[in-house]
Amino acid sequence: MIIVLKQGTPQQEIDKLTNIITGKGINVNPMFGSDLTILGLIGDTSQVDPAQIESFRCVERIMKVAEPFKKANRMFHPGESIIKVGNTEVGGKKLAIMAGPCSVESKEQITYVAQEVKKAGATILRGGAFKPRTSPYAFQGLKYDGLALLEEARAATGLPIVTEIMSPYDIEIFDEKVDCIQVGARNMQNFDLLRLLGQTRKPILLKRGLSSTIEEWLMSAEYIMAGGNPNVILCERGIRTYETYTRNTLDLSAVLAVKRLSHLPVIVDPSHATGKFWMVEPLARAAIAVGADGVMIEVHNDPANALCDGAQSIKPDLFAEVMKDIRTIAACVGREA
Fold first, then answer.
1. Residue 185: which domain range?
2. Long-range contacts: 15-24, Cβ < 8 Å, 24+?
3. Are 243 and 276 in contact (CB under 8 A)?
4. Are residues 48 and 97 in the same domain?
5. pLDDT of residue 76
């Protein structure tokens, strides 16, 4: 349930109404905008008598929220959320460009790639320290040594870092060392992990699950936000369909749907979506054109010999060309890159 208050409602009236509602065991989530104030009610709102609420002169109208996600719902937060990641932002006019290798392999590799992607215009460095792989025999990442190398690359370039967490036991070290914690597709519905991440204030990059619906994706975001952490960034990375030509099927319509349903920023990962390096450039352009708040692109200095996902990685020189295209399209849709 949402209560829309009249413009200019004094804080004293807001507090009085809030106290009545919280007295019924319902949480009140206030949102103060330039034009109106909204009180988002979370809990068993059957205890609320609309007639009693409407008796307050400051109440403009009462609205029911049909979707099961509340805090992630645009009705609760009509404006766009802007999430601060290190020294940059995700969700504002300027696009977020996350780039780097699938996995951290050495100090030389991650530092070189970080320098190259920053030179081309990247705003956030991505790199996998812990790698969830389908095969237990595949390269699993450098783990804590990889985190240390990401820190060194950040120190060398100034780029904030985003990397994937695998275990709830690592939340403390990620909270300390990482600028943005990525929850991968396989962990999108690891609800124990999501609840614990809700207790941090660290930005969370939440990737869409392998075959998850948009509502399931937003409900996973709700787990984090319900725990008290509003700093969630959504990432569309393709879903599993009947098609086998590409690694996954990139659902660009999800960007439009999420933007309609939620205030959270959403970026697109064309690398994991397709598994083919030559598709990355045109789909990155398409993502910006449909309104994504940024892209996540895998960049490797030597894709042919990469320890992980070389087939979908592009070289730094091609990434620089992609950035030129992104800047052109960004200007056409009122964004900057």
1. 83-332
2. 16/56, 17/53, 17/56, 17/58, 17/59, 20/52, 21/48, 21/53, 24/48
3. no
4. no
5. 84
- Residue 286 is predicted with a pLDDT of 97
| Count of CB atoms situated within 10 Å of the CB of 280 | 25
Within 10 A of 230 (CB to CB), how many other CB atoms are there? 20
Residues 36, 164, single domain; the answer is no
Tens-digit pLDDT profile for residues 112-129? 999 999 999 999 999 999
Share of the chain above pLDDT 90, in %: 74
Contact present, 281 and 318 (Cβ < 8 Å): yes
Residues sharing a CB contact under 8 Å with residue 20, sequence separation 6 or more, in sequence order? 52
Any domain includes 128: yes
**Alpha-carbon 6 to chain mean position:** 32
Strands (DSSP E) along the chain, which ranges? 2-5, 27-32, 37-42, 59-63, 83-85, 88-90, 96-100, 124-126, 161-165, 180-183, 204-207, 232-236, 266-268, 294-298
Residue 295's pLDDT is what?
98
Which stretches in the chain have pLDDT values below 50? none
DSSP type of residue 123: S
- What confidence score (pLDDT) does residue 178 get? 97
How many angstroms separate the CA atoms of 156 and 114, rounded? 8
